[in-house]
Each structure stands twice: as C-alpha cells, then as structure tokens.
Amino acid sequence: MKRVFLPAFVLMSFVTTSARQDMGAVTGAVLQSPQQPASRFNVLFLIADDLNNDLGAYGAPVRSPNIEQLASRGVRFDRAYTQYPLCSPSRSSMLTGRRPNATGVLTNPGKNPMSPHFREKLPDAVTLPQLFRTNGRFAARVGKLYHYGVPNTIGTGGLDDYPSWDLTINPRGRDREVHDRIFSLRPGQFGGTVSWLADDGPDAEHTDGIAAAEAVRLLERFKRNGQPFFLAVGFYRPHTPYVAPKRYFDLYPRDRIELPTLSGADRSRTPEAAYRSALKEQDAMTDDQRREAIQAYWASITFMDAQIGRVLDALDRLSLADSTIVVFTSDHGYHLGDHGLWQKMSAFERSARVPLIIAAPGAKARGAAARGLAELVDLYPTLADLTGLKSKAPLDGVSLAPMLQNPATMVKDAAFTQVRNGYAVRTDRWRYVEWEAGQLGAQLYDMVNDPAETTNLATDPRHAATVRDLRARLAAYRR
C-alpha cells in the first residue's frame, strides 16, 4: 500500500547517529533461552503523546492521512478510554495491563526521575513487551513508551523499565535544542505548560523524524534477519511544546480556527473539583493566543502523522504488513480550551477519550468503526490473544479481538477513568463522575443527547436511578 504524504513535503531520511542510544548490551543479558513464538505475528506498537481525537479518521478537520490509511485496513475504536489522563499513570497501566490503583502509579515523577515506578508495587510484573520478549520476539523501544521523568529529558531513558526491552533507542532532535526560541505561557518552562514554535528545520532533524528513521532501520534489520519482533515507537508530538516545521503550521490558518463555546457550568466552574486542572496563565490567554496554540497543536499532529507514514511505508515495502499487528493509540486525551481547560488531568470526555486503531492480519473487519467501549488496559490481553501468548500475571482488561472480527461486538459495558480524587465511569449512554466519593460533587452527562457535556444531570430526580447504578459501579471499581 502506498502511503499518503501531504504535497510539497520533502521528508529527509538521514539519522543523526549521536541521537542513538542503544541499551541492548544492558537489557539483552536478561533474556536467556527464548521460547519459539506462539504465532507468526509481529507487533508494531505506535503511540503518540498527549493526542486527543483531533484526527481526520475521527471526523476532525486535522490532516492525518497516514493514520486514516491505517484505519482503512483495520478497526477504528470510536469509544476508547485511558485509565488515568496523565502520562506515567496511563502508560504504566497500559503496559502492565493493570489499573492505576494496582500499579500504584498515580502521578508523574517529580525531581526524582526514578519514582514512582510500577515495580515498587508490582516487582514481578510481566509487562506487555516483556511477554513478547520472553516468547521469542526481539523487543525494541524507540522514543517514549514509559514516562521520561523530569522535564526536558528527551534523548534519555528516563523512567524506563529495562526488563521490558532487548534494545532501546532515545532520539533527540533539534526541537530539544531550540528552547530559547519557544513561546511559553510560563517563560522557560515547556513540558507542562502550553508552549509552541513553528520551526525552520526539516522533519528528519526533529526528534520524531529521527525516531521514524530509527524504526525503519530496525524493521529493515528484522526483515534481513528473519527476526520476529515487538517494536514500540513512541512519538513525542503533539505533547508540549508544540514544535513542528513551519510548513505544517501553514496548513491551519488561525483566522479559520473556531474557539469552543463554554457552558454555564464551565464559566462558573461547577463543581469546582472538576476544573482543578485549570491554570491561571491559561485563563489569561487572549483569543489570538488560543488560536495560535490550537494551530500549533494541530500542526504537531500532522507532523507526527507524516512520521508514522514513513514507518508504515517501510512495513509495506519490506513485505512485513501481512505478518504484523499494528496498534496506534495515545496515552490520554487533551483539552484545547473546551470546558475552559487546556491539556489533561480532567474527567471530561475530551481528556479521557483516546484514539485507538488496530490492524491485525486475518481480521475480518477492515475500515470499520467499533462503537463498543474499550480501554487502554485492554491492549495487553488483546495482543496476547491475537498472538496466542499466555500471561501468568493477572490482567485487568479484556481482549478486544472479537471486535476485530465483528465491530458490532460489545466486550464490556463500562470504561473507567480516574484522576486525583475523582473517578469516572463511561457507559453506552452516560458519563458519571464523583469527586471524593461525591463529597466534592458529582457530574452526570447524557452522552447521546449532550456529547459536549453542557448539562449536569447528577441532581436531577428524573435520573436518580441512573445515578444509583453508576455510583455502585464506581464503588465496586474503587475497592
């Protein structure tokens, strides 16, 4: 399949060797005598950072042709949810197959980049890549899979889990070297605040461009050696700072960007706990700055999509597509001024919902949309199921494999997201949130008739039975 690239984009293919850090000598010693693979399928696991559903595949006005083509040969999950809308808790949960309360990872690392780590609470966990590694696949990581710890650690291993990998590569590009030119709402701070730059450099000099080139290099090696693999590629964009080549910014004229409309509850921020992620500097943004930030975020998505295209093009060129399961997702959703919020760490749909596409050789459904609920914690059992691997470790998710055969299949009736002192449950119709077990307020939204979450029905007596049911589900989840 020929990959789609936006016109006039010249994607350079060189790799900056100084950006490569191979840890195979360290991690490879853990693997002794691997078993033979249980099936012929490899895995290509692609994950973006801080990406919401602003993708062409989901009907958004954002150009992402390569992700759309991946969706055309697999299943697009329309209602997939993170377990915790923050990088480290989400990734730890997803890669262990355990929910955040089980991993013990409920925050990002602070000044100590090695804490918290899921192995403090689950020392014997067998992670998703580790399962493949101990079953005859070569497990490699390029870029960010686990959290990288303190800000500005692009190009380092950060908060990694070395038993998971035979090889790690930590790319570092020009986007990490131009911080003096980045506009930030908090001058000098980039990783946790809204910040952006339209850069003059080419794709291949950026961290994600280098990551794509390294992933292609590994695919070529696997093909040449006939080596089964689990290759995880973690792209940094569109995480802040939103840095991408200027040509991508030009695709989204600011005067055509519409700002979201706020509800009365958004303006009054009721209940207060639901809006705790709001920051003063974000509230002080001008409308022009809001449009610039959205433009930069969308530009970063399209740039990231082009790098994914390079990897998928190599998969096809090397005739590996028919033997490789491809997963594309993000660690959590993202606010762009909706509800008056920016970034993540809320329990609203925009923060909790993630893109998820799975293309599996032999699956009956191709180019289909699955409406059934799914969670990131389901990815571990799904990939184990599709490849015939058995995990001895307990898993909290369920396999989504039946939905790849029939996208109308429902494998669960609820998805759960937690953040700080709030817990949310998403069912087919409802999103219900409790803050401090209801002591700090609750929210109930009819997602069929009010998908923008404008009217809180939690205290409406007509929905008392629904609230009781969903409250009981959350109580059971918290236990």
Please provide a written account of the structure.
With 479 residues, the protein is α/β, with parallel strands linked by helices. It folds into two domains: 17-412, Alkaline Phosphatase, subunit A (3-Layer(aba) Sandwich), CATH 3.40.720; 421-479, Arylsulfatase, C-terminal domain (2-Layer Sandwich). It is built from 14 helices and 17 strands. It has helices spanning 24-27, 65-72, 87-96, 100-103, 128-133, 207-225, 246-249, 264-268, 280-283, 287-317, 349-352, 379-387, 401-405, 464-478, and strands at residues 42-48, 75-81, 138-143, 167-169, 183-184, 195-199, 229-234, 242-245, 324-330, 335-336, 342-343, 353-359, 368-375, 415-419, 422-426, 430-435, 442-446. It is globular, with a radius of gyration of 21 Å. Mean pLDDT is 90; it is low at 1-36.
Structural class: alpha/beta
**Segments where pLDDT lies below 50 for 5+ residues?**
1-36
Radius of gyration: 21 Å
Percentage of residues assigned to helices: 25-40%
User: Helical element count?
Assistant: 14
Adjacency order of strands in the biggest sheet:
4-3-7-1-9-12-2-13
Q: Quickly give the CATH architecture of the largest domain.
A: 3-Layer(aba) Sandwich
Shape: globular
Percentage beta strand: 15-25%
The end-to-end distance, rounded to whole angstroms, is 48 Å
- Total tally of structural domains: 2
CATH fold label of the largest domain:
Alkaline Phosphatase, subunit A
* Average predicted local confidence, pLDDT: 90
What is the level 1 CATH name of the largest domain? Alpha Beta
Q: Based on DSSP secondary structure assignment, what is the total number of beta strands?
A: 17
Largest sheet: 8 strands, mixed
According to CATH, the homologous superfamily of the largest domain is Alkaline Phosphatase, subunit A
